[in-house]
Design brief:
279 residues, alpha/beta, 6-stranded mixed β-sheet, 10 helices, 49% helix
């Protein structure tokens, strides 16, 4: 997705076309189009936020500006929030001045009353948002430990996380079992209860023992990675209280990457300003 600022589009038309386009006219046309599409967007947004299970993520783009900053640059980092309804399969962007601040997410939750479960990474805004039932993403928690693979203590906690992934993948809701019957949500919820609580108990005990050992400084990578897992204990356990939840929020990340052709090394142009939404 390549969104070029309107003033640049007008300039391009003047240089390559046989007529001039007034910038204010172009802005008005875009605003009118947005007004026509907004009811559809709002309907999709409400369906996604009411979905019983949502993946949520946010990422940045490089947004062009007409006026350079103090360093002489005409770009700035701007964040887009992304919501995926895992049951309805709708995907919705939310953009508010390029901000990643807590009030953007909190205002959205309060305004539209998010129902069901949201799954996110460990970004602090999600972790302390009120009025939502949030579960963790095990892939994000595992990432910090993978960078330390080879350290016995890191490998021990990785072993617990890998075991959760391995056992949960034995069965999949909606797929045939060896005996020919279709695995149901009720069966998967009961199955998760047979292994997840015990593994999580053991993992948390090991995490606390590692921190209590005094072997690692508080600012060391391993101490931080394990402290994060401990702080996410309730959100980790929450994953396994239902059958329909996944262990990661990768759906949001991958959909964002595919839809936007997102690449941190390549600037995406955007003329979005204010409270802008895209479906």
């Amino acid at each position: 997705m390549l969104a070029v600022p309107i003033y640049r589009e007008c300039k391009k038309i003047r240089l390559t076309g046989n007529f001039n386009v007034d910038q204010n006219t172009m802005y008005k046309l875009v605003q009118n189009a947005a007004g026509v599409l907004r009811p559809l967007y709002m309907a999709m947004l409400l369906v996604v936020l009411k979905d019983k299970f949502k993946n949520v993520d946010e990422s940045y783009i490089q947004m062009f500006k007409e006026i350079a900053n103090s360093s002489g640059e005409f770009v700035r980092k701007a964040y887009i929030w992304f919501f995926v309804g895992m049951e309805c399969r709708f995907r919705v962007f939310y953009f508010k001045d390029g901000s990643r601040k807590a009030e953007v997410f909190e205002n959205l939750v309060q305004k539209y009353v998010v129902d069901g479960i949201i799954q996110t990474d460990s970004y602090v805004v999600y972790r302390y948002a009120e009025g939502v039932f949030r579960i963790a993403c095990l892939l994000h928690l595992r990432r910090g430990l993978l960078e330390l693979a080879g350290l016995p203590d890191a490998d021990r906690i990785l072993g617990h996380l890998n075991k959760l992934f391995r056992l949960d993948a034995v069965h999949k809701v909606g797929e045939k079992e060896p005996d020919g019957h279709i695995w149901t949500e009720e069966e998967h919820k009961a199955y998760r209860a047979t292994f997840a609580p015990q593994i999580i108990d053991e993992m948390m005990a090991d995490c606390r023992a590692i921190l209590a050992s005094g072997k690692y400084l508080e600012h060391s990578p391993l101490y931080k990675a394990i402290s994060l897992i401990i702080s996410e204990e309730a959100a980790i356990r929450g994953i396994f209280t239902e059958a329909f939840t996944s262990l990661t929020n990768n759906t949001a990340y991958h959909n964002f990457s595919i839809i936007t052709n997102f690449n941190p090394e390549k600037a995406l142009h955007s003329c979005l300003t204010g409270d802008t939404m895209c479906a």
